[in-house]
Amino acid sequence: MTEPREGGGKDIRQWADGILAGNRRAIARAISCFESGDPRGVKLLKSLYPHTGSAFLVGVTGAPGAGKSTLVNRLALHLRKAGLTVGVLAVDPTSPFTGGALLGDRVRMGRHALDSGVFIRSMGTRGHLGGLARATREAARVLDAAGFDTIFIETVGVGQSEIEIMHMADSVVLVLTPGSGDAVQVFKAGIMETADLFVVNKADREGADKLVRDIEEMLHLAKGEGGWLPPVIRTEGKTGRGTEDLWSGLKKHRTFMREHGLWEDRRRSHLRREVQTIIEERLQRLLLDRMDTSAFRSDLELVHSRGSSPHRMARKWLSDLIGGKGE
Ligand SMILES: Nc1nc2c(ncn2[C@@H]2O[C@H](COP(=O)(O)OP(=O)(O)OP(=O)(O)O)[C@@H](O)[C@H]2O)c(=O)[nH]1
Ligand SMILES: [Mg+2]
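^ thats the input. predicted complex w/ guanosine-5'-triphosphate below
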């Protein structure tokens, strides 16, 4: 495939066709575009969007070293055996995108290296965290359009940026480990609301039973969405034990959501959130541009000399902003 340099309509269409046909290079190029904020990405997504919506998006989150990558690897193997294709986006907001991180994941996911039914990509910060969340969403769309059946999005930790990223998933898995004392912390951080399934990984370790009990107890205090009670699943990433249970838990959640009309509801609310963010960001950018003009500065002088008021000036510029041509 020739690489589109100009970003013209025809080039973009060819590029999109490449992605729809599952061309790995076209997919990788697109994801790089999103990471760097290249405007061609937005055009590309316009062509791809009608072809998205079929993939099952699974968010996997948890503390560093909880075993997320190991579990995703296990799940990927399991799904490949069942004839399903898998996309994996490993998001690391703490460290910049480095060849090392990518290599690390490649090595860990080594068994899939030559399998065209698996696409693995590490995503890092190339700017602010909001940018990473958006790039991840767009990358997931590209994999979706390319026809991957299930897409795993792995994020570290329980911070705001991770919660943001989890807001694009159909199902969210929270991975905990015995003895780390993180159960209570996690509940404090309010991530419980976003988790649909709890995993106690490293179940080979002491304290796994207690952790399962603790989580189950705390879950009784909460009401899951539409009556869904999140299961607590034991896994051993190292041996692969529990992988089937985890996958069947995910399928159960998907079925439950669909049967209760929650699946589409959740997707609608994710889209609502996304559109809101796009509008907010655009408005802010337009405003900042206008604040840089001499007209703005001279109006400000008028307010300063009491010839106008802050509210009056704000009203004027607001109506200019929303009445203006925009973009
Ligand atoms: N004992 C034990 N160790 C495990 C298990 N699953 C994973 N590990 C080990 O835990 C370590 C971390 O595993 P990863 O899969 O890299 O964890 P992660 O959550 O992806 O880590 P980050 O992406 O760095 O946050 C590795 O050394 C794994 O071999 C398990 O079930 N039992
Ligand atoms: Mg990992």
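Residues 68-69, 90, 154 surround magnesium ion (ligand 2) (CB under 6 Å).
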